[in-house]
Each structure stands twice: as C-alpha cells, then as structure tokens.
Design a protein that fits this description.
By secondary structure, the chain is α/β, with parallel strands linked by helices. The chain contains 6 helices and 12 strands. Bound molecules: adenosine-5'-diphosphate and magnesium ion (MG).
Length: about 190
C-alpha cells in the first residue's frame, strides 16, 4: 500500500473505535507515558489536542499541571508552539484542528525536553505516517529539533513493521501504544 491508501485505512480503523475503546486505550497510553523516566524528568513537553479520535493525552495535562505544556499552531508550513494554559483562547484552524491563538506566549525551542508526536501510524524503525502535510518532518529536520527526545503516539493497530517512506521522512526515537513503549535503536548501533 502507498502512503495515501495506508493513511485512509488507518484513519478509518481509528474512526471505527467506539468512544469507550478510544477512551480506554487513550488512558492506557497515558499510563505508559507516565511510567517513563523520560516523561517524569521532562519539565517542558510538546503535545497535541486529540483530533479525529487521535489518542487523547488530555489527562496528562490535568495530572501534571506543574509541567510546562506546549501546543502547536500552524503558521504557513511551520508549527509554532505556545504554552498551554486552561484559560488559553483556542481557535479552529483550516484543518479543523483546535490551536492556540497567535498572541499567546511562545515556547522557546531550547526549553523543550520531550515531544509527544501524534501519528496516523508508526513503524519499527521509528518512521511516522502523518496526515500528509509533512509538518513534523520539517520541524524535526531543523538543527535545534533534530536531537530532541520524541515519542510517537498511536494506537497499536497503527504500529506496523514497515511504512512506505520518502527521503524527507524523519524518524522518532520511540513509539508508544496502549500495549507497549519501544525505543528505536539508532541505525548506527545496529549490527
Ligand atoms: P506526513 O509526514 O505528514 O505523513 P509526508 O511525509 O507524505 O507527510 O510529507 C508531505 C509533504 O511534506 C511532502 O510533499 C514533502 O515535500 C513535504 N516535506 C516534508 N519534509 C520536508 C522538508 N524537510 N522540507 C521540505 N518539504 C518537506
Ligand atoms: Mg512524512
């Protein structure tokens, strides 16, 4: 299957989850994330608001209000990150995704300890399938962001052996599903 077909198939599987399954599996993903030292030690974490039945990480913001949370806003072809606050004014962008208003304070990239990356699918090498906009590929290819710890978030049916990839696709450092968290071994360490 090519990316477009695979995206469609995985999105329809996700959309077919009942609300109870979606909530239960999202809760398990939150528990997996919370069990990690990487998460516990992170002070500033970039996250997303669940859209089209993406795993809902909302309980993390409420359980850990002392962490600094950042949410993305699409600006042209880039993502700009703003601090999330419960009272923050959100708007709906051209993709139908809720995002912070442009005048809210911006999270300096240097401060970011962990990025929780929403994925339509992921594979065992850490490659990610998104909605097709390439936003995270562009972000994570920049020098400041290349080395940031990243955890791809997907339900287990989206965690595949091998995704179709293009030269611009970047890899994530780990993948979290309701069943497991796995950290990807860098190519350079493989024998
Ligand atoms: P997604 O990663 O969202 O699943 P794709 O990998 O299919 O989407 O990429 C979508 C588009 O993003 C491609 O058309 C590609 O040209 C563009 N793109 C991705 N990364 C970069 C980059 N680093 N520089 C310029 N364009 C990029
Ligand atoms: Mg890509």
């Amino acid at each position: 299957m090519d990316k477009t077909e695979l995206r469609r198939s995985l999105l329809s599987q996700r959309q077919a989850l009942s609300s109870a399954q979606w909530q239960g599996q999202s809760q398990k993903i939150c528990e997996q994330i919370q069990s990690q030292d990487l998460f516990q030690q992170a002070k500033t974490i970039l996250v997303y608001l669940s859209h089209r039945q993406e795993p809902d990480l909302g309980s993390l913001f409420t359980v850990y209000p002392q962490k600094h949370w950042g949410l993305p806003r699409c600006q042209g072809r880039d993502l700009v990150w703003h601090y999330w606050q419960p009272e923050a004014t959100m708007i709906t962008n051209r993709y139908g995704i809720r995002e912070p208003e442009a005048n809210l304070p911006v999270v300096p990239g240097e401060e970011v300890d962990l990025i929780l990356v929403p994925c339509v699918g992921c594979d065992r090498s850490g490659y990610r399938l998104g909605y097709g906009g390439g936003y995270y590929d562009r972000l994570l290819s920049q020098p400041l962001w290349q080395t940031k710890p990243t955890l791809g978030i997907t339900f287990a049916f989206g965690y595949l052996e091998k995704l179709p990839i293009n030269p611009w696709d970047v890899t994530l450092q780990g993948v979290c599903t309701e069943q497991e968290i796995s950290y990807i071994q860098p190519e350079s360490l493989k024998t």
